[in-house]
Design a protein that fits this description.
The chain is an alpha/beta fold and about 325 residues long. It has 2 domains: about 160 residues, Quinone Oxidoreductase, Chain A, domain 1, CATH 3.90.180.10; about 140 residues, 3-Layer(aba) Sandwich (Rossmann fold). It contains 10 helices and 16 strands. Strands 1, 4, 5, 6, 7, 8, 15 and 16 form an 8-stranded mixed sheet that branches. The chain has a 6-stranded parallel sheet with strand order 11-10-9-12-13-14. The longest helix is centred in the middle third of the chain and has 14 residues. The two termini are about 25 Å apart. The relative contact order is 0.17. Bound molecules: NADP nicotinamide-adenine-dinucleotide phosphate (NAP). The site of NADP nicotinamide-adenine-dinucleotide phosphate has 31 residues, from α1, α4, α5 and β10.
Length: about 325
């Protein structure tokens, strides 16, 4: 294998490893071999790693749908984490966009570690003046908000937009992107996080612990759902007859196989028979969207809401805080 490497020696690294599916108690700080980049891949010296719900799915192995790719009985790859910001430590054969020493952010497998390998196509340069911590919060959650609102949702200026899960990893980006696009934004979150949602540009905030967003007369052109697993009936109720629903996800509900994903499938099946457009999002991961996010950051229209940072050894606690709803925006592990 041909790689261009920096001068650092040593092939071992610290990483948060997991040898069986389960809760945060299955994650432990350990020492493993440093991965090597193959053709078209980049080895990143990770400075910060974002924490997001996708990591929880891979940690628990639920829904079971993830297991054909990530391992039937136990995780194939022992290191969790998919978002990273750091410095290029080595590049594999054929990599043309990056060189050793470049500061980058993006999506890699196993980022709760000192080093992680990323496809060249899933990395972009760090936005000017941005910290590694902030950049690590961007990739998966930012791309999800961007694609869900603009590409799937067809967001336009002047629309009334409802963001359910507005205080979460995806939701904090969604509120800002909708606000920047000229929409009137209503965010749904717990009351304790309403100040955060307002500070990101929401015009109205609904506290889901004391108020039902589906009660009352307010109707929306676009409903962007990332939390709470509301029924399709309730979601459609607040949507204008020509409105668009984008189902992103929600806390696990339903069986182990689909864990709520059946709601998305039902929406897609129903959509051709109703006037509203009912859509689900499966975000795709590429550098073009990372660059779009970076340019929004540089223009001052987007800033990651990082609620807390954790040392690498405390990554299990970060996962616990995420699972138990204590995150305000994004959580980030620093290395
Ligand atoms: N489709 C895709 O490609 C894709 C990509 C990425 C993520 N996702 C999914 O998107 C979802 C959100 O991810 P995330 O990283 O943003 O998670 P997160 O940070 O945990 O955010 C979850 C949000 O849901 C809110 N929430 C909890 N209970 C609620 C309720 N009963 N009613 C309304 N809101 C409620 C939380 O608000 P409070 O804490 O204020 O209560 C929080 O804002 C997950 O299901 C994830 O798997 C999908």
């Amino acid at each position: 294998m041909t790689t261009t490497e920096n001068s650092q020696t040593g092939t071992r690294m610290r990483a948060v490893v997991q040898h069986e599916y389960g809760g945060p108690e299955t994650l432990h700080l350990g020492e493993i071999d440093r991965p090597a980049p193959g053709a078209g891949q980049v080895l990143v010296e990770v400075r910060a790693a974002g924490v997001e719900r996708g990591v929880e799915h891979l940690m628990t192995g639920l829904p079971l749908l993830v297991r054909p790719v990530y391992g039937w009985r136990r995780p194939k790859d022992p290191v969790r984490g998919r978002e990273a910001a750091g410095v290029v430590a080595a590049v594999g054969e054929g990599v043309t966009r990056f060189a050793v020493g470049d500061e980058v952010f993006g999506i890699a497998e196993g980022t709760f570690a000192e080093y992680a390998v990323a496809e060249e196509t899933k990395l972009a340069r760090l936005p000017a003046g941005m910290s590694f911590v902030d950049a690590a919060a961007l990739p998966v959650s930012g791309i999800t908000a961007l694609q869900g609102l603009l590409e799937v949702g067809g967001l336009e200026a002047g629309q009334d937009v409802l963001v359910i899960g507005a205080s979460g990893g995806v939701g904090t980006f969604a509120v800002q992107i909708a606000h920047a696009a000229g929409a009137t934004v209503t965010g749904v979150s717990s009351g304790a996080k309403a100040d955060l949602v307002r500070s990101l540009g929401a015009d109205h905030v609904i506290d889901h612990t004391s108020e039902d967003f589906a009660a009352g007369d307010r109707r929306y052109d676009l409903v962007f759902d990332t939390g709470g697993n509301s029924s399709l009936r309730r979601l459609r109720r607040v949507l204008r007859p020509d409105g668009t629903l984008v189902l992103v996800g929600g806390e696990s509900a339903g069986g182990k196989l689909l864990a709520g994903f059946d709601r998305q499938l039902r929406a897609v099946v129903l959509s051709p028979f109703v006037s509203q457009r009912l859509k689900m999002l499966i975000a795709t991961e590429g550098h073009e969207h990372l660059e779009q996010l970076a340019s929004m950051v540089e223009q001052g229209t987007l800033r990651p809401a990082v609620g807390a940072t954790y040392a690498l050894a405390d990554a299990p606690q970060a996962m616990r805080d995420l699972a138990e709803g204590r995150a305000r925006g994004k959580l980030v592990v620093t290395i």
